[in-house]
Amino acid sequence: MQDQLPEFLVLGQLRRDFILLPEEPPLLDVPGGNALYASVGVAVWQPQPPPALIARVGEDFPQEWLSQLDQQGINTRGVTRLPQAIDLRYFTVFIDRRYPVHDDPVTHFARLGVPFPKSLLGYQLEKEDVDSRTQFKPISLRQGDIPQEFLLAHSAHLCPLDFLTHNFMPAFLRQAGFTLVTLDPSPGYMTPTFWDDMPTLLTGVTAFLPAEEEVRALFHTRSRDLWEMAEALASWGCEIVVIKCGESGQLLYEAPGRKRWEIPSYPSRLRNPIGAGDAFCGGFLAGYKRTYDPLEAALQGNIAASLVVEGHRATYALDALPGLPQARLDVLRQSVRRV
Prior knowledge:
With 339 residues, the protein is of the alpha/beta class. It is built from ten helices and 14 strands.
C-alpha cells in the first residue's frame, strides 16, 4: 500500500491517547493525534491512494501501530522516528460526551473505579504556553520530514502545530508546486500577541479552518462578531475561512462574492468526540480537491466528522458502510442556510 504515491499529505502530530468516556470502556494507550484523525477524514472520501501522514515520533512510539495504520489505509512512510524517547501521551476525560477535562488523571481513575494504567505513570499535563517564534519543538516538522516523492501530491493539510512550522511550511509547499494548502491553527499562537504575524501566516493558504474559541481568542477586544472575524481573516490573503463551532456546525465565509453559509452538524450518534474537528479538516481537503467548491468541501468535512464521532477509536470511520457518507451528504445538503 505504501508503494502508491499519495494525492494528499496530512502534516501534524501522532499521540498515545488515554481517554475516559461516560458509559464506554476506557481507551488506554491507543493511537491518536490530529494527523491521524485528519487522515481518516480524507480517506472517508478518497481512500485510494491512501493519504500520507507526516509526523515526528520518538523511538518509543509503537511500531506495530504504524504497521496497523498502513494495513487500514493510512500511509505512514512520512512518519519520522527520532532517536530519542518523546512523551506523546495525552489524557482526557469526558464528564459528559461533549466537554473534555484535562487535569490530573489519578483523581478521575479513582473516581470511576478504573485501575490506573502503568503506561500512564509519571504523566504530566502539558502546559498551554504561548508558541515560540524562535525555538522548534522536537515534534515540529521540517522540510526534510516530507519524502521527496511525496511533493508530487500537490494537496496538503496542516493540523494544529507550533507557530514556526505553520509560518514556513505553507510557503515551502507552495514553492514545491502545491496548489491546495489548508491550515488548522494551534491555540498556542491564536492570541493577540501574534496579531501582526497572522497576515504573513495566512498569505497563500487556500482555506483557514480554526475553531470558534481560537478565533475569539485572537480577536479578543477587537470583535465579537464571528462573520466580521472571518472577513478580516480572509482579507489577509486566504479566500476561504471555515469557523468550526463544535456541535453547532460550521460557518463558511467565501471572500469572492462575500458569501456566508451556516452548516449544521449532521445529527450522528455521538460516542467519542475526540478528533471531530481534525476529521472535518481532512474531509474538507478531499472535498475541495474533488469539487473546488468551498460549500461542498465543508459539507464533506461535516460528514467525515459525523462518522468519526460515532466510533470508539480513531479509524472507526474507515469501515463505514459503502454509500453511507454520500447518503448523509445528500441529507445534510438540504439543511444549509445562506446568510
